[in-house]
Design goal:
D-Maltodextrin-Binding Protein, domain 2, ten-stranded mixed sheet, binds glutamic acid
């Protein structure tokens, strides 16, 4: 009997010691698992989501493990949040507005994504229209009859491509439209299998760098009265320039841009989103190192172009910082 009690006692001590010695990988399993829907592996969302996941993991009190998923991007990401399949997502501010309000895009008409709260806006995403030199395309109207990648399935890029073409009097049926992923679009441009491709992405995005290294591509401007009409009809666009030599031997080109932003699923606890947001702004240095476009994130500008109501956790953070009243 005595021995039995002693054995039990020893077992209890052993169990306690085992808990204290749990390898960190096991302890990590106690963290809440969340997913961040990002974008193209060759784009900007993906490295940024990776950085946010690492920052949140490292921060003392966030207690989450965030997995990053690549996707077509904005439209798909809004839908993933809507269905509860993603907790956080990166997407364009124009697409976030269309999704939340159930307007403009067929993906959202009558299917608004209401359970999505804004967290912060980050950097301008420029509509890069890349054409092969061999195609002779100089302006958007020249796309007529050509093989054109509108963007990956589920991308914001595709929506932008259609709006840009529309402002130049072109319909999807006027081009040989392709919807393929961004890396494949770059390969096909380099091989001359397509004439042009749209990419709405941050300056310095790997996929654009890659097509220009080939020396076979040019940027097609989105400019003039057509760009003005586009901005008039869809006010999320702003007129911007791609400075010369952002990409190898590339001439300065006028185009339009929207903003990249972060959203959180409305059902996520206020405290979780608050701590997540705080962790990012507490470690802006690491965030900025993820990509040159990431350097645009500052506390002061983090709500510029925010198209939807903030998640309560982000709202609390920005009020505390005096950025929001
Ligand atoms: N803005 C892009 C889209 O939604 C994704 C860009 C990226 O992954 O860098 O189509």
């Amino acid at each position: 009997m005595k021995i039995h009690r002693r054995a039990l006692c020893l077992m209890a001590i052993a169990a306690l010691a085992a808990t204290l010695l749990l390898p960190s990988s096991l302890l990590a399993q106690q963290r809440r698992l969340v997913t961040i829907a990002s974008g193209w592996v060759v784009g900007v969302y993906y490295p940024l989501a990776g950085a946010m996941s690492r920052i949140a993991y490292k921060a003392k009190d966030v207690n989450i493990r965030a997995t990053v998923e690549s996707s077509g991007a904005s439209v798909a990401n809004a839908q993933l949040v809507g269905s509860g399949d993603a907790d956080f997502a990166l997407l364009q501010n124009d697409i976030a507005y269309y999704a939340y309000n159930g307007v403009t895009l067929s993906a959202f008409l009558g299917k608004p994504v209401k359970n999505m709260g804004g967290v912060f806006t980050i950097y301008p995403e420029l509509v890069h229209v890349v054409a092969t030199k061999a195609s002779g395309i100089k302006g958007i109207r020249d796309l007529k009859g050509k093989k054109v990648v509108l963007g990956p399935q589920g991308s914001g890029t595709e929506a932008n491509a259609i709006q840009v073409m529309e402002s130049h009097g072109l319909k999807v049926g006027d081009v040989q439209a392709e919807r393929i992923d961004a890396a494949a679009a770059a390969d096909q441009l380099k091989d001359g299998r397509v004439d042009a491709a749209f990419f709405t992405t941050g300056l310095g995005s790997a996929v654009i760098v890659d097509t220009f290294i080939s020396g076979k591509t040019v940027l097609v401007p989105v400019a003039g009265s057509e760009a003005a009409a586009l901005i008039g009809k869809y006010p999320f666009y702003t007129a911007v320039k791609v400075p010369a030599n952002t990409y190898k031997d590339q001439a300065e080109a006028q185009t339009v841009a929207v903003m990249a932003m972060m959203v959180a699923r409305a059902e996520l606890p206020e405290d979780l989103v608050y701590k997540f947001t705080k962790a990012i702004f507490d470690d802006l240095k690491q965030f900025h190192e993820a990509h040159s476009a990431a350097k645009s994130l500052t506390l002061e500008t983090a709500l510029n172009g925010m198209p939807i109501p903030l998640h309560p956790g982000a709202d609390k953070f920005f009020k505390e910082k005096g950025v929001k009243k």
